[in-house]
Amino acid sequence: MKEVTRFTLPPLPAVLLAIVSVQAGAAIAKGLFPVLGPAATVSLRIGLSALVLLVAVRPRLGQLRAEQWREVIPYGLALGTMNFLFYEALARIPLGLGVTLEFIGPLGLALAGSRRWFDFVWVVLAAAGIALITPWSGQGIDLLGMALALAAGGCWAVYIVLGRRAAGALPGPVAVTVGMLFAALPVVPFGVGSGGLLALTPYLLLLAGLLALFSSVLPFSLEMQALKSMPTRTFSILMSLEPAAAALSGWLLLGEKLTVAQWLAVFFIMAASAGATLTTSKPLPAVGGE
User: Would 202 be classed as within a structural domain?
Assistant: First the structure.
C-alpha cells in the first residue's frame, strides 16, 4: 500500500494563512451576533472546535495523571474566559480595535520583568497606541467594549503562562484538545442562558462550523506546523501583524472603518509588539490565543 503524502505549507505562508483564517473567523462571528448573540456564538465555536479536535487528536483521557489534570484544567478555563470576553467586546467595538487592545495582554507579559532601558520605548509606543484609541470625550467607541477587550488581553497573558505549563505536562495537541473541553465550562452556561441557541438553524449551524474551522482548528494546525521549522521569535514577530490583519478584515468584510488616529494606534501597538519580541527575552506567544 502506498503511503499517503501529507500536504504541508512552508512556514511563512502557513503563519500568514493562520492569521488570515483567525480574522476571517472573527468576521463570521460578528455576522452571527445579530441573530445568536456573542455568548451563544462563542459557545458554538468552542463546542464545535472541541468536537473536531477530539476526533482529530483522540486524546486518551483515561490515561491522564492527576498532575496533568491540574495543569490543563486552569489552562482551559482561561482559554474559555478569554474567548468569551473577546466576543463580548467584538459585539461593541470594531474588530481591529478589539484585537489591538487585546494584544496589550501578551505585550505586557513579554515586557514584564525586563531590565533593559530600551524596552521602555515599546512601553511608550503601546501607551501612545492606547491613548490614540481611547475616546477621551466619552463619545464614539464603546468604553465597556474597550474594557472587555483589555480584560480579554489580561486573560490572554494568563492563558500563555498556563499554556506553557500545560504543554510541559502534555503534548501540545493533547493539551489544546483537553483544554478546549474545559474552555466550554465558563462559556456554555452563558450561551444557554442568553437564549441565542434557540434561534439556531441548519444554515447558522453551518456558519458556526465554519467559525470553528477558521478560528480554531485551521489556525491551530497551521501554527503548529510552522513552529516545527520556524524559530519562536520569528513566529512571534509575524503574529504582531494580527492587529493590522484584524483592522483590514473588519474594513473589507464588515465595513468597519477606523479613523487616522485609530490606524496610528494599531501601528504603534504592532511596532511595540514586534520590538518587544526582538529585544526582550520573552517573545510573544508561540500559538495565538484569540
Answer: yes
